[in-house]
């Protein structure tokens, strides 16, 4: 039996991606552009991108909010799952990343479905108040602000909307209630909010794979 090592986790992840996800020229090009721009390789794994795609389809989402665009990899996955007239609104703090994501969305043929707003999430989210509610919210930005993002997800999402929060495992450090790591503290605060706030009904799963030991939380707005 294979040992439960990071190398074997990654090998299984690659096998699952090859078997169930496959390769796509536009998505591969988006990742290549991200690497060429020397951006951190913190995009979701292919199997997670496909999960987001399926969640959009399963929830029949028309309007998706993403907090944390990077080079647009996950935005492309979700935009491709939308029906005609659907849209992804994605917020990116770094103008250079936003420009790259727009280019990648255009190359993938989904520029008409992806709107990228530049600025810190906490600053941009209030500007969305009053727009049509969102059906799915994907949170994958600075972990220190997870509670802010969750609060706005609840304000901007319709009842029954799906909320996904990435990177909640933190290589197991999420169980450490004495940590001074602000990212882990932010994740813990966000999970506590999901558990205590009556606007959410949530669970979480830990994951292993090409991104190491991590996890994601999934909630429904009540």
UniProtKB/TrEMBL annotation:
<dbReference type="InterPro" id="IPR050362">
    <property type="entry name" value="Cation-dep_OMT"/>
</dbReference>
<keyword id="KW-0489">Methyltransferase</keyword>
<dbReference type="InterPro" id="IPR002935">
    <property type="entry name" value="SAM_O-MeTrfase"/>
</dbReference>
<keyword id="KW-0808">Transferase</keyword>
<dbReference type="Pfam" id="PF01596">
    <property type="entry name" value="Methyltransf_3"/>
</dbReference>
<keyword id="KW-0949">S-adenosyl-L-methionine</keyword>
<protein>
    <submittedName>
        <fullName>O-methyltransferase</fullName>
    </submittedName>
</protein>
<dbReference type="InterPro" id="IPR029063">
    <property type="entry name" value="SAM-dependent_MTases_sf"/>
</dbReference>
């Amino acid at each position: 039996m294979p040992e439960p090592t990071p190398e074997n986790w990654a090998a299984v992840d690659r096998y699952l991606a090859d078997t169930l996800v496959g390769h796509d020229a536009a998505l591969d090009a988006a990742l290549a552009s991200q690497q060429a721009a020397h951006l951190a390789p913190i995009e979701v794994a292919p199997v997670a991108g496909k999960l987001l795609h399926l969640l959009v389809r399963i929830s029949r989402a028309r309007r998706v909010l993403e907090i944390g665009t990077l080079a647009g990899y996950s935005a492309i996955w979700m935009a491709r799952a939308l029906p005609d007239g659907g849209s992804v609104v994605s917020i990116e703090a770094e103008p250079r990343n936003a420009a790259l994501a727009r280019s990648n969305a255009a190359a993938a043929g989904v520029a008409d479905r992806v709107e990228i707003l530049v600025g810190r999430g906490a600053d941009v989210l209030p500007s969305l108040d009053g727009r049509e509610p969102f059906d799915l919210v994907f949170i994958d930005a600075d972990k220190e602000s997870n509670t802010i993002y969750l609060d706005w997800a609840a304000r901007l999402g319709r009842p029954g909307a799906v909320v996904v929060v990435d990177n909640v495992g933190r290589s197991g450090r999420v169980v450490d209630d004495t940590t001074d790591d602000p990212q882990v503290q932010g994740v813990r605060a966000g999970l506590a909010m999901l558990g205590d706030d009556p606007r959410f009904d949530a669970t979480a799963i830990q994951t292993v794979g090409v991104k190491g030991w991590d996890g994601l939380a999934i909630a429904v707005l009540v």
